[in-house]
Records
---
Amino acid sequence: MKKNEDGRKHKISVRNLDFYYGKKQVLKNISMDIRENKITALMGPSGCGKSTFLRVMNRMNDLIPEAKASGTVLLDHEDIYGNNTDVVKLRQRVGMVFQQPNPLPKSIFENMAYGLKIKGIHDKGKQAELIEKSLKKTSLWGEVKEELHKSALSLSGGQQQRLCIARTIVMEPEMILMDEPCSALDPISTTKIEELMKELVDDYTIVIVTHNMQQAHRISDWTGFFYMGDLLEYGKTKEVFNEPKEKKTREYIEGRWG
Amino acid sequence: MLTKNSQQNLVWSILWIITSLLMLVLILLIGFVFVKGAPEMKLSFIFGATTNGGLMTPIVGTLYLTIMTLIFLIPLSVGTALYLSEYAKQNWFTEFIRYSLSSLAGIPSIIFGLFGVALFVMIWFKKASIIAGSFTLTCLALPFMVATTEEAIRSIPKAWREASYGLGATKWYTIIHVVLPNATPGILTGVIMSIGRVIAETAPLLATAGFSAFLPVSPLDGTRTLALHLFYLATEAPTVGGLTRNDLLSQAMAVGTVLILLIILLNFLARMIFNHFNQKVRGFR
């Protein structure tokens, strides 16, 4: 497997990706490598294509009827837009956490077991064991262990989002995509999620879309800056923030617009 | 010139009078039927054999016809609504289906009756019967049921579907485990409103359901519903059993009373289910 200068292999390799919603092109000739076991942040102004790019990696865009992609997106050397791709398997390997916490209107336990059942794990004991492990990992266990059968919608926003992360990692994915996971949360919950991400990155490759530059700066190892469908700049977070090569990136980071 | 305040008062008074008039009409109508029907509201009348002038057959017939109609109506409308909202591409064909459904909803019910006679009675079942009547009512209620079901399915938040797909669920799995369970209260409300419609209809059943006064057994037997029975009572010539025109009319009023009470009960039920659902959703948010 191809290694980088920092010795990390590429989990995802994107080459010459164009993406359209109907006739409108939202991503232009993107080439990008995502390093394994690193946090990669995608930032840029609204409508720059960063969320679309995130949703390319687990083909969540397939739900939009007019969407069309061309180019190659390799996950461990397998083209995920190839004809043989099983989208169900892909989404189990590449989990996703959304902007709004979106637990299903079921109990906490049922939310956690939902994906396990899809994976074919129907044994209650086995489910309970995996669920406990994941809830402990997201430090939610202590808060909810007495009320696993209460509605997940009765949890606070921050707890709901940690539940959604737990629900994703119980599937034992290889990657976690996060689409502005903290934008609906208060600062304390945000801190908890950021700490959690730093713990999780030892086991998973994380890609996070964020509006929040401080957040990108704080938690990510690599940062990509999107602007109007182009990937303007991509590099180590320190370098992008300290000595941006592009004028637009510098202006955005300095807060002149965005 | 009127001051601002007295203008307000004037408008308020006019609106109050209009609203009260409306209430008055409702109270008069229901009150009239209830008062006129009251002398006949005896258990022996309500549960008596229809061959002796009782209501047993119309009550059983109404239930029978309603259940038969629901058996055809629910799968057809849920299937159509699922296809339209989840599977069909938005193109001229689905537009055409939607257009057809909304046109169907505007067609007078007697036309459905005519169609029922021509197809179900004369060609399929060769006789006016419960099954022919329920087929006719299914056609009549279908547009409304499809619209209600589609509405219920569309009201499922996109975020819940995304959560399901994001965990690797297929479309069908998502429909079975997320969409339908959460759309059920909305669909149930539609079912109850449809029942109300089925119970109240006469025109489509006049020539399709038969008018037998005997208790129906097979779906191929004819029967009469409460609404149909009311129609017969109100239009029958006063010959049988020494009943006068007035006797028959007050019997019709008694049937009307039962019918109105049933409809009120159903509306109440629909409202309860809807409120319960709304509270559940709000409590969750």
---
Amino acid sequence: MKFLHTTVAVAALAAAQITVMGAPAYAARAYIGTYTADPAEPRSGNNNHGEGIYLVNIDDATGAPSNPKLVAKDLSPSWVTLSADHKFLYAVNEVASYGPNKSGSITAYAVDSASGALKKLNTVDSGGSIPCYVSISGKFLLVANYTGGSYSVTRIKPDGSLGETTDVVKPGGPMSVYQAADRPKGMSGSKEPHGSRGHMILPDPSGQYVVGADAGRDQIFVWKLDSNSGKLTEVSVTKSVPGAAPRHFAFSPDGKTLYQQQEQDSRLTVYAFANGKLTQKGSSISTLPAGFEGSNTTSELLIDKAGKHLYGANRNHDTIATMAVQGDGSVKLVANTHTEGTIPRSLTIDPTGKFLYSMNQSADNLTTFRLDVDGVPKFTGKFLGIGSPAVMVFLP
Amino acid sequence: MKLLRTTVAVTALAILFGAPAYAARAYIGTYTPNPADPHAYANGKGEGIYLVNVDETTGALSDLKLVAKDRSPSWFALSADRKFLYATNEIDSYGPNKSGSVTAYAVDAKSGALKKLNTVDSGGAGPAYISVHASGKFALVANYIGGSFSVLPIRPDGSLGEASDVVKPGGPTNSASAVDAPPGQEPSSPNRITHGHMIASDPSGQYVVGDDAGRDKIFVWRLNTETGKLTEVSVTTALAGSAPRHFGFSPDGKTLYQIGEYNARLTTYGFANGKLTQKGQSISALPGGYQGSGTASRLLVSASGKNVYSANRTHNSIATFAVGADGIATKLAITPTEGEHPRSLAIDPSGKFFYSLNLRANNIAAFRLQPDGVPRFTGKFLAVSAPAVMVFLP
């Protein structure tokens, strides 16, 4: 009887595997972070329709994601990053309700590579409210806090959980202007007084430097991270256009060029990056079609593996700007592609480089595009309904 | 000297009338700041009613000029003789009852200037639609928050009287989502009451039709043009949770096209003797395979009746439908609006140009209508804060 059981089980397993391995063939999986209701903010549920972190399978042939499976209930995990070995996932909790200081938080998860399940390890203070970006430098987690106006460094313990905060950089100084002189005609922009707004923090490709964009006081910081103490030391500060709000940036594959997208004037600036210093190359270009009037704020910026194309997300115009890197290193806008949904919070390219995804936060959907030889995304017709998507990372 | 003066004047006039040639003008209504509730839908950075010139050749809009400071004039209608303009004030703070209001303006035909005549209670909070009854003697108002439909007498001088009737449908609340809504559609708030979203005469002028987007009903009334009272002729129950929002009639008045806000679907009805009879199945205004949230807003029928258009707010697109010989609409194309949250659409009097009022992109995008009726973007934008409605002044 035991033998029979085993045989049946094996046969069932084989059958199940054949079914799983049949069409559609899943080449990769991805985690999707969403905005969720925060019980501390009664109105947050009106706009935030997600429940946490979801897992989807990606069809290799069509790029279509499968129905999402909730793998971690969490508070607004709006940005996530995987460790280099894909064993751990770190998520910001984009809230202003953590602890007595009404800070934000970051949560560490262990990844079950077979099932994709996430096991929560711990949650710690992010060093400021509304953390919106997280990345890894060696043994440290780097976080940009938007409302808190700070950048923090947190030690990653050998077991993958988060340890002590080793540094919090909170730039001071005078406020910048509200509106950039080179914004689109009719762009109303913010009128609320604000200080620094940490929007992104990331090591450069060489790993020698850490770069941070301050969308509140219009500057780009370059630091060195002490790999023992976890302290940041300032190397340079580059002033952007006042009011432009440098938000997300991307490095060329060789690390010698930094492309900086500006949220409030919808423009992209090219900088040479050498010895931890930025030198602007040429004039900035608009991510919007010629003649655009009205309001728009950019969000994500991506670069393809070859370093030939940049993809910027336009919110309000709700398009993907494809920008081609020219022979002289300058950048040219070549297309604006409808995102097929409102408020693209971020974009992602799959590991094969064939597909591009737009996280349309206010449309509660994710749309799939194919990257053609010209580098311009073409909509595949595939929508995935998911509440308030914010970020997507692949688990190869 | 006199001759010289005349010559100079004529030359100046010639320059004035030189290129670009303005074929028409249009009023644009906007949402204005709502300090009491910044999270409210009816909130924007507009200042009131604007006038623009429309270029006959390119469709481009220019010379935006504020002609009336007013509170959220988010819908308006011109009298048949174009001498008066009636604007809703989409607010919930008018008078002791915290109602909405309607403002009457006299139109200066030459300059396009607006002179305020008076403001009256709209008969409910959050008025979202106004039209002038076929008799020309009454303004009809749909109140969204207040959940009512009201009739306001138009006085001989064009100003408005107090409401002659306010219809406030009661009854059980309806479903928060429709069974045929797109997968992933975020449900609307539960326990919805009546939400008056549109009210207008049918082309014959014999009936008045009203959309209740809260309780999913389409009312047909007769209006007594002496008393200004509405008498119910029929009530059609739309699909639960679909939120019938805007409708349009075929030019012969025999067909009514109804767009559902929460299922983004178009339903065709035969209209006869004040009664609606559904024809065929409803069709989605969204692309095939759409998932996510999708709320429809404006519906338009072309002057020829050959095309029906609707606006998709979360998908930010215009759905073009072709009307078949049987009057039933089929989907022809989906065109991006070039801006977020199209609150409304407008076709110019020549029928050549089409405009999308992109509320959250703070712009209006101009399209040219192709021979098949599908709008193609002209590349022309006009920045205007929180645009909500556009009406042409030919």
---
Amino acid sequence: MNWRTPVADLFGRIFRRKRLNNELDEELRCHFDLLVDRYLERGLDPEAARRAARAEFQGVELVHGPLRGDPFTEVFGGLFHDFRQAWRSLLQSRGFATVALATLALGVGVNTAVFSVFYAVLLKPLPFEQPGRLVMVWSNFQKTGGQHAPTSGPILGELERRSRTLQSVSGNWVTTGTFTGDENPEQVYVAMVTPNFFGTLGSRMAIGRGFAQEESFGGRPAIVVTDGLWRRRFGADPNIVGKSVRFRGADPIVVGVLPPSFRIFFSPDSIVTSDVQAFVPFPDNIYQNPPTLYYLRVLARLKPATSLARAQEDLNRVAREIRGVYGDLEEEKLTFTVAKTQADAVHDIGPAVLAVFGGAAFVLLICCANVTNLLLARSSYRRREIAVRLALGASRIRIVRQLLIEGFVLCAPASCAGVAVGWAALRMLIAIAPDRLTRTGAIGLNWPVLLFATLVSTAAVLLFGLVPGVEWLRLDLMGPIRQIPGSAHRSSGRRLGAALIVAEITIGFMLVTGGGLLARSLRNLENVRPGFEARRLLTFQVALSPWLYAGDQLTRERDWEARLAALPGVEALGATSHLPLADAGNWYGPFRAEGATRVDAAANLADYRSVTSGYLEAMEARLLEGRYFDRRDRAGSSSVVIVDELVAHAAWPGQTALGKRIEVEHMTADGFVPMWSEVVGVAEHVRNHSLAKRLRGEIYMPYEQSPRSPLSYVLRTKEDPLSLISAVRRELRALDPHLALSNVRPMESYVRRNLAPAAFTATLAEIFAGLALLLAAVGIFGLFHHQVSRRTREMGIRIALGANRRNVIGLVMREGMTLTMIGLLLGFIGAAAGARWLGSLMYGVSPVDPLAYSIALVLLVAAVALGCVGPALRAASANPVDAIRAE
Amino acid sequence: MSDMSDPSEIMQGTLDLLILRALQAGARHGLGISDRIAQVTHGVFVVRPGSLFPALRRLEQRGWIQGSWGESENKRRARYYRLTPAGRRQLELEKRSWHKTVSAINWMLESEA
């Protein structure tokens, strides 16, 4: 069938109607002429003949009625009339219209705002060429339990050579580097990459080019900078390409500047921050690294039209082949996981966003239930009107159409208001959102979001239009006309209304319970001891690389710590290579306990931290056994480590760790070198990565035996830690004007940032719970108010027959509580099932936490009681005489 | 002689039946139809345009009659209607049901009180 046919048909019908009317006019004119002829024949004069003919034509205008029986006209004729009528009837009941409009606008608004976040975080495509083909390849060490782990240079080479589904495979590693060469040294995150990195991403340079093969692995030094760095540090110099800059103790040549839109997106546990501002090729040949030096994050591009499943199969084969080549990897049972870059980047925040989205959808459902209830209440007032119209010959299609139009007239302004509410709500949402959400990209109202709002509103129109319609179309015509208004009757509408209230209470209970569980989780997380004391702790980072290059870093670092310690207000201080909860870079690797076999050794991975002697004490990390580092632990003296309780337990279960020897990797001038060291202390575990999880054990090494740059300093202060910042800056400038402070923050801000996702979900869940309670109260008020006003006569008679006020109030309250009990029972089942789904968002709370459930129960019963009280009092005040006379 | 100028006051189907019957002998225009009805019913039913044209329109939409433009005996343009095969069947049907109704009513009226 030609697509044009239905369209032509539609126009045909519109014009045919016109044509038919023209033909009718023509026919009537002819008929008139014939009549005139006849009267003339009978001998009347022309004037009298015309008059006589006109007399016969009385009533002819009725012929021009709507042409019944034509389905097109039936559905579309008189649309304007229906719109006007719907608008008028809405104006007539302003109270109803206001409540319905506000409720709908609230529902649409909340959902629009939350969907904006949902879209920006989970759905919006990454700004790269064909982003659907970008994947991450993670290594899994089944023996060591390491999932989602980086890989090593040789494995990267094998992946490139052996895989048949990957078009290009790139590796990267993020570290820090300092631009020097002028008065303002600046420390930035820098990504070391394989030369094909930008080609794999599919991003073009704004100026210049990406890396060439000969610039990698110690070839000609080159650097690519981001738009932000180019503008800030190099004054947006258009001729920057080809110039050399002073960076990390070398003079690389700028070969390219990235466009402003460029951003990389990796999950936070990949330790590849989006704040990377410079890219350099790896300075050494990574393919010749030890095969078990795992630090590379692998980004790859699938060949066209390759599914993720096929790529996974392919990499399973590659892993089998590699295990056959490298004995170490066979022991560790290496496998690969391939994941879409986009999904991988948000895998940690995804559940929170989904839960919030689900909560918002529940709020919308309650809003819809409320508005439907209002419409049902209103429609029952209109039963007589509809029945009369049906009896007078209005077709059912016509009535349904009018209902839909009324739904539309209600929903269209509500949707517009809803989008406005959504816009405002989104501002607030972004203000409280954790930076993980906003970092992923701009969140805003855009076309997909508006499309979503439109879909929601359209669904609402259909729902609100048709639900009352179903009742009306089953209407027995004579019933409502004969019916005594105000008499109690059990209509399907009332049953539906009750069912909606039960549904509202069910959903409300689930939302309030969810809010309670998440609030309790947040409280538990806030009370977690992270393994140190975060209060009154100032932190900042200093890149010591210039001292490292000069070779006098140890003495100068000691000098620097002495200056800091002399500042008034400083109680204790120390420094570490990696600050807990900072999520900027990590250093971890395998360790081997003395006496363990090689296979067992592979089972142990730990975070490595190079710390100065005062660090653990300044952090107030508790010592469980042995001693802290002190002045004895110098470069050249015997190699020592402090391990945490997790490492101690894993390596020597049931024994003391003190005096035992352990092989750990030290940072030396030659890179990472495994070295046997003696355990001198056991410290409490520090939650380096998340307040909610104990990820890995820790091994601390004395800075002087394993020097690294940059160092993060922690200053335990007497007063507000921020008051010391200017003094610290002054000292550093006095000591070495080439060094820069960065990331100056109180420790508590890292803790807060780690709490932010939980705080975000808990806050939203509480808002949703509050809305649910309010809406449930409004909904039950609406239903009972309506029922009571329809049952005035019944109440009047009851009172006349001797029922006292208390009985009548009890009657109404009892009905309300019956509905509530059913709703609560269903809600309990729903909440218990749904709480499991919250899963990873809960911390230290059982999915059937009695406190959360009891609070939800009390709050809902209170909300329902509040909703019932008004109507109950009104029922009780029914005057028997008025009530009966009202008929 | 009563002037039943508004046939809608009698049973709804009656006018349709009269029109269909008037067209059984051949095509007629509107005035021809009302003339024929007035003539055959000895002036009991005089169908005026206000009733005639809605009825014609209805019958045409149901597909029982079909109209086409032609020329009247005194050389004026007029729309002629003829029965369609469906119209013929409908006429037979209505005739039968009418006879049944009339007989039933007659039996009732002529029965012993």
